[in-house]
Write a structure and sequence with these properties.
Layout: H1 3-17, H2 19-23, E1 46-48, E2 74-78, H3 99-112, E3 122-126, H4 141-170, E4 175-180, H5 182-194, E5 204-210, E6 233-235, E7 239-241, H6 247-250, E8 270-271, E9 279-280, E10 287-288, E11 294-297, E12 300-303, H7 328-344
Parallel strand pairs: 2-3, 2-4, 4-5, 5-6, 7-12
Antiparallel strand pairs: 1-3, 8-11, 9-10, 11-12
Length: 345
């Protein structure tokens, strides 16, 4: 089975498992863009925003007792692809006001990924006209041109949202950039354009660029994080089962940046799963310990087969969908570590 098919099936399983949850919320999504473009002055065009209640505010039940959110730092979160329709019924880019798609985004990525950051700061997550999933796998020259245009349109929405955020809501706060999958495709570009060679770099707590490879020479002044308290740096990983590497990774001409999301140190590239204090799987309010290990090798993060109830039936070897979720509590704690270190500086 092709790696692209595996990832699609993973998304399908996650999204359909959440379908009952988000279908009942579709009535909340009643806004419509007159010209098809998002208006970031309208909070409807933000999947998460500190000036409204949204699912990014959710905290897993075991963590609620000691929950103390910080409002002095901002997180700009760019969600992954949820427009996975192979027929591209909306075209190469998703409609910004597709009710079903927006609900799907919120009750998957925003709930299970963006919520990781809600104690470390205020979470901003823009809706954008995301490129269709199959833009990553063009089958012809025409497809390639369409895919480039689709990614450009999506990025321009992200850029517009970030510029609006800086102008109206940042007010000099430190910033964390966080993303997954297609979100990381755009986050890399955003960091390059807005942070790499500007004073804004001095306000970068860290960037969590997950699920898409970051080339070792992509940035010149922003370096990979090599310790858990380092700031102004990037963390990145892609999670696979030990010993497995899909064809597209074998053909990479570079060794991607990889961070161990259990140790956060380049001096400790390997970590047993017993160091993993908590994953969040399909049940958001349940933390599951010791699910996944973490070992860095050749630009990839490997884990032994995940351990959880029912994992005997979990046969996929590509854990892209769970890049954050396998290490939910570890990422949550590390974000706070870096925020604390930033203020000490």
């Amino acid at each position: 089975m092709k790696s692209s098919t595996v990832i699609t099936l993973l998304w399908f399983l996650i999204l359909t498992s959440c379908s009952n949850k988000y279908q009942q919320h579709i009535k909340e999504y009643t806004f419509h863009a007159a010209d098809g473009k998002p208006d970031y002055n309208d909070l409807n065009y933000w999947a998460a925003h500190p000036y409204k209640h949204d699912v990014a505010d959710s905290v897993p039940k075991p963590l609620r007792k000691n929950y103390q959110p910080d409002s002095t730092v901002d997180i700009f979160f760019i969600h992954p692809t949820t427009y996975t329709d192979k027929e591209k019924k909306c075209g190469w880019n998703a409609s910004i006001d597709n009710d079903t798609l927006n609900a799907k985004t919120d009750y998957t990525s925003i709930l299970f990924q963006a919520s990781i950051f809600n104690e470390a700061g205020r979470v901003f997550a823009p809706r954008y006209r995301q490129a269709n999933y199959y833009s990553y796998f063009p089958q012809s020259k025409e497809d390639t041109l369409n895919a480039i245009k689709a990614f450009d349109m999506a990025y321009n929405d992200i850029k517009t949202a970030f510029e609006f955020y800086l102008q109206h809501w940042n007010n000099g706060r430190p910033v964390i950039i966080a993303s997954h999958s297609q979100g990381t495709t755009h986050a890399k570009r955003l960091l390059k354009e807005f942070f790499e060679n500007s004073n804004l770099k001095n306000r970068l707590v860290a960037a969590y660029l997950v699920g898409i490879p970051v080339e070792p020479d992509y940035f010149t002044t922003i370096k990979p994080c090599i310790s858990p308290n380092q700031t102004g740096c990037i963390c990145s990983w892609r999670t696979l089962q030990e010993g497995y590497k899909p064809d597209y990774m074998l053909n990479e001409k570079y060794t991607a940046v990889v961070t161990n999301p259990l140790t956060w140190s380049n001096l400790q590239p390997d970590a047993d799963r017993h160091l993993n204090e908590g994953a969040v799987l399909l049940k958001f309010n349940k933390l599951v310990k010791h699910v996944a290990a973490a070992r860095i090798d050749s630009g990839v993060l490997f884990t032994t087969k995940p351990k959880f109830f029912g994992s005997i039936f979990y046969t996929t070897k590509n854990y892209h969908i769970a890049d954050y979720n396998f290490y939910y509590l570890s990422v949550r704690k590390n974000v706070q570590q870096r925020v604390n270190a930033f203020w000490k500086k």
